[in-house]
Specification:
Strand content: 15-25%
Largest sheet: 4 strands, antiparallel
Number of domains: 1
Radius of gyration: 18 Å
Strand order of the largest sheet: 1-2-4-3
């Protein structure tokens, strides 16, 4: 709540100082908010996974991860415009993956990159979940069907 108040104060200050709201980068502000929401969701999912594994003394399974988290009363990851999955890459470990439901764009890439930068886990940006390296920086987004961030959380 305090963050929202400070954002409103900042926006009002900018409008008063600049005299017009047209110079405010609304997409940039929306991107920051969206990546913040994804960060909270990712951290919540990881915490829920750890809690499940600690409480049950068993690994969260790839096939039934959503049902297993529900049995603990944990909220499932949910962000508009994005889908969440849990998987395993052999030799690397288990991961949560957030994948865009819309056509890749510079905006979506910025949101996912911001998420990658702020997480304290090994994470890779690519077209599909389970990536073990970032896609090349020069990738033409119009050739991709989706963008995803694979967040490795261990075994």
């Amino acid at each position: 709540m305090q963050h929202a108040i400070w954002i409103i104060v900042l926006v009002i200050s900018l409008v008063i100082i600049q005299g017009t709201p047209s110079i405010i980068n609304i997409d940039g502000m929306r991107g920051i908010a969206e990546s913040g929401s994804l960060i909270s969701t990712a951290n919540g999912a990881i915490l829920s996974r750890d809690n499940y594994q600690q409480t049950t003394s068993s690994q969260l399974t790839v096939a039934n991860w959503e049902a297993e988290l529900r049995t603990m009363g944990s909220p499932l990851p949910n962000n508009a415009g994005f889908a969440w999955d849990y998987g395993l890459t052999s030799g690397v470990g288990n991961y949560f993956c957030v994948q865009s439901n819309i056509a890749p764009s510079d905006y979506t890439l910025k949101v996912i990159n911001r998420l990658q930068e702020r997480l304290q886990f090994t994470a890779y940006v690519d077209e599909t979940c389970g990536a073990v390296a970032d896609m090349p920086a020069a990738t033409d987004l119009t050739t991709l069907s989706s963008l995803s961030l694979t967040i490795y959380v261990g075994g």
